[in-house]
Amino acid sequence: MVPSIYILASERSGTNLLRSLLSNHPQYEGPIPIHFFDTFFTCAARYGDLREPASMRALLTDAIGIANHPYHDWQLQVTADALWEQQRPASLFAAFRALYGAWCAQQGKSGMICKDNNLFHYAHYIRAQEPTARFIYLYRDVRAYCASWKGVPAMHKTTYQNARHWVAEQTTCLNLMAVHGIDCVPVAYEELVSNTPAVIDRVFAHVGVDTDAACYQTAAGKNDAAAERNEFWKNINKPVFDRGAEGYRKKLDADEIAMIEALAGPVMERLGYAREAATAWQKPRFFSLQEKLRKKKLKQTVFTGDALLQDKTALVRRIQRGERQQ
After folding, report:
1. Is residue 225 part of a domain?
2. Which of 20, 174, 216, 237 is most buried, by the most CB atoms less than 10 A from its CB?
3. Is residue 23 in a domain?
């Protein structure tokens, strides 16, 4: 077995691109993320003692149901009963590994890549359960991050909120490395798209596995189905390309850039990003009221047209409430 790879990052930071590139390796595969820990970590007790076969089978049934939902479309060809018989998982983490292991085996690979949302919240838990795990910290310029959220059909936060959110998540990841000793290889999204081979080589050197040149570029056709069925993944089947800073300057005005830099400046500088605003941003009068109006507008215009996303979200919520699948 080769070491498992976990990608710690904020959303809209290039995680799907990195996952798809690493999955071109002959030993590694990373599925469309199902956010296993976000779904089950706090509700697993509803299943009872996971050392009991019936409890574990119930959890595995729900996990397979999420993985095989058309939104994720893993097409797992194993049942909860078969998975339990084969591996006898007796903990939440063992269930996670059994599920991902079954999917990797189905792809003919031995190494797992996981890029689920919010993995940085579970890094201590993962390291304790799997000491050989390897971590990648992927980060992106906060200005490009905020601009990216403006370009998707479901922008859940204002630019002000997104900048603050980015700061909190990067601080968490940086503290994992500097304070808590989580060994990560740091990767800037900008370097990933501008010097892909060097980044991929550095990642696999950290993992301790030989690089394969197939990981330097996206595989033609491999991610077409995912890109077609989900607006959020529309770029993962495209060749790697570098938009540069002009990408965010087309979506953010000068005031927004100044605001983002005022909120995120110290963390930006810690990650090697220079400020560019000509003048310092000061919170304008009535800003809180303006934010409330912006949030209200977002709620009215939030993307609701993706039936697959809505159905998947409803399934996850039912599971978290303890409504079992049959």
Report:
1. yes
2. 20
3. yes
